[in-house]
Structure to design on (624 residues):
């Protein structure tokens, strides 16, 4: 490999001058030309080396930190030393990678969530959460923004898909008994994530400000006025001084009807507050999957005769 | 048979997820239960053959001595995740290219949509509005569903079936969950989407949504049927009936919980608190079909009438 340090256009010591014979007895111009030729030859050599084995360059090593070859150690390090992959263990139950056990629903839910964050961020460039322009923004998005319609469709159908996948994920976790010891708390986190998923979808429903969203949210939030104790039409609400202007529904809508404040509140819950909350709970959820011993199975089956007695008080 | 009406309902963009649900929920139920029954057969074999139970690796998946029990995540898991991401992307793309997200007229508070429906995943709760007041259907029940789901790991004292599909070892919990998820949640969503038409009236699939249809139904309160007219006796009567239901349902549930020898073994592992919490949620859950039946069979509106709330 060519020496790369400390050259000023002259051949490094010990390197045979390239283009033998051209440097003999020439003037200063010929000397410079010979030097330039030598540099060119070395540069060509270096580029060839780099293309042939990019993994040997300092830049490559600094980014990837570890060797990536076919050894088991490298495979493990490839996962463990990568920030995006390190939530995975290095090795996994050989039967767990088959589709039939997990149905892949948890992972696919997370992937759809990422898709939704991505499309949602792009949608935010074209949307104003104001009663005056919200609906027009959607029309503009659908007719004038390049791929705007596709963007909105992906966000809408992705949201529906996420709700379905979350429910199926929960169904699978129940059927495999994966909420049992030591994963009890992670099931609780999962239920919270289910609720947050539904709330994310629900708050997004109002944002186009069309009849569909308006009446869906009206129907939905009308329930809130019937909240026991905290709603003005709920049991014991009036007795506690609840009116349409101070109850829990007023707090949700920022008013007594679904109007501009409700739109702004739905927007902030949808785009800022709930995504942050959901992301935080997701971090905990994935973290706990690892800390509770990785995914639950397929585990060896236990027989009835092997149940140990619990310690009674 | 109004096929056009049926097609209008099925092809409404926001109803497509329900059509999808109609396919994937039965599929995955079958897919899971099939593995459960396969495992159950192996469990039966292992139970009848203790020598086999000592040496067997206890999975239906093949395993030979010398095979590694674990495989590298890279590439064996990551390639599947990558493939799954691509497939989901393709599905989402094709779905988004072929079907447009719904956009109705601009919102108009003076023009009520009929039927005016919540998003599909809340239609189970909206369907409950037929049978319960909003404070029950819209607030108490969702809260109880959430809390009820959260307490499941803490009241299920059955140590079997941890990390593998089985039906035989967890009959009670699996049947309860399937009842809650499929009968009470998914099927109510399907009813709310495909069957409820204008005025939230029941239209069988294939019949025309008649906006002028009137149904003359007289729903009566239970105290009225018994000729109780004044306020205080109504309150007391309702409380007694609801109390009787709770006792009867709890006794019935207790019989179910302690029906088989295995169930009694699991029951013996429960603390008093676990048992009380489980009974509470089971009794409340059972109240749903009971109230629905009371309405559909006997045209009963409320069972417990008070000046503050009605059940």
């Amino acid at each position: 490999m060519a020496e790369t340090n400390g050259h000023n256009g002259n051949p490094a010591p010990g390197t045979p001058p390239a283009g033998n014979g051209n440097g003999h007895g020439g003037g200063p111009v010929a000397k410079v030309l010979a030097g330039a030729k030598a540099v060119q030859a070395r540069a060509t050599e270096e580029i060839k080396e780099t293309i042939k084995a990019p993994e040997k360059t300092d830049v490559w090593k600094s980014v990837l930190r570890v060797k990536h070859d076919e050894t088991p150690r490298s495979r493990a390090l490839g996962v463990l030393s990568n920030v995006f992959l390190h939530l995975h263990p290095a090795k996994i139950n050989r039967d767990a990678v088959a589709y039939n056990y997990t149905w892949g629903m948890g992972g696919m839910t997370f992937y759809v969530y990422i898709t939704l964050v991505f499309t949602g961020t792009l949608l935010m460039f074209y949307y104003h959460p104001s009663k005056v322009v919200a609906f027009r923004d959607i029309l503009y998005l659908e007719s004038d923004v390049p791929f705007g319609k596709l963007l909105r469709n992906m966000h809408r159908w992705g949201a529906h898909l996420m709700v379905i996948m979350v429910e199926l994920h929960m169904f699978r976790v129940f059927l495999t008994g994966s909420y049992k010891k030591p994963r009890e708390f992670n099931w609780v986190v999962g239920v919270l994530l289910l609720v947050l998923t539904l709330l994310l979808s629900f708050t997004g429903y109002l944002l186009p400000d069309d009849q569909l969203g308006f009446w869906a949210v009206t129907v939905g939030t009308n329930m809130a006025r019937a909240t026991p104790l905290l709603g003005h039409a709920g049991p014991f609400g009036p007795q506690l001084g609840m009116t349409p202007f101070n109850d829990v529904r007023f707090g949700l809508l920022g008013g007594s009807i679904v109007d501009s404040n409700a739109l702004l509140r739905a927007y902030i819950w949808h785009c800022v507050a709930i995504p942050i909350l959901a992301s935080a709970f997701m971090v905990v959820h994935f973290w706990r999957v690892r800390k509770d011993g990785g995914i639950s199975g397929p585990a060896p089956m236990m027989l009835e005769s092997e149940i140990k007695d619990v310690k009674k008080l | 048979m109004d096929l056009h009406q049926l097609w209008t309902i099925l092809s409404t963009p926001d109803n497509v997820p329900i059509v999808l649900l109609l396919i994937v929920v039965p599929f995955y139920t079958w897919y899971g239960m099939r593995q459960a029954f396969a495992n159950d057969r192996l469990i039966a074999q292992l139970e009848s053959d203790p020598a086999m139970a000592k040496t067997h690796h206890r999975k239906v998946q093949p395993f030979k001595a010398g095979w590694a029990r674990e495989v590298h995540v890279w590439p064996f898991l990551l390639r599947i995740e990558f493939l799954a991401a691509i497939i989901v992307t393709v599905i989402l793309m094709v779905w988004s290219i072929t079907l447009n997200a719904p956009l109705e007229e601009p919102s108009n508070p003076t023009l009520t949509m009929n039927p005016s429906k919540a998003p599909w995943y809340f239609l189970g709760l909206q369907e409950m509005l037929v049978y319960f007041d909003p404070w029950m259907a819209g607030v108490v029940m969702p809260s109880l569903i959430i809390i009820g789901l959260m307490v499941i790991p803490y009241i299920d004292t059955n140590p079997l079936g941890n990390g593998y599909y089985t039906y035989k070892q967890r009959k009670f919990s699996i049947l309860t969950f399937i009842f809650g998820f499929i009968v009470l949640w998914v099927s109510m969503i399907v009813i709310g989407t495909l069957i409820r038409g204008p005025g939230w009236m029941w239209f069988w699939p294939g019949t025309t949504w008649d906006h002028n249809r009137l149904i003359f139904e007289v729903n009566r309160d239970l105290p009225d049927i018994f000729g109780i007219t004044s306020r205080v006796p109504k309150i007391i009567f309702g409380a007694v009936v609801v109390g009787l239901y709770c006792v009867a349902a709890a006794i019935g549930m207790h019989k179910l919980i302690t029906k088989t020898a295995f169930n009694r073994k699991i029951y013996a592992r429960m603390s008093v608190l676990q048992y009380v919490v489980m009974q509470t949620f089971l009794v409340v859950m059972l109240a749903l079909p009971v109230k629905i039946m009371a309405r559909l069979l006997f045209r009963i509106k409320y069972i417990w009438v008070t000046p503050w709330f009605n059940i």
Observations:
- Chain A touches chain B through 109 residues (CB under 8 Å).
- The mean pLDDT of chain A is 87.
- Chain A has eleven helices and one strand.
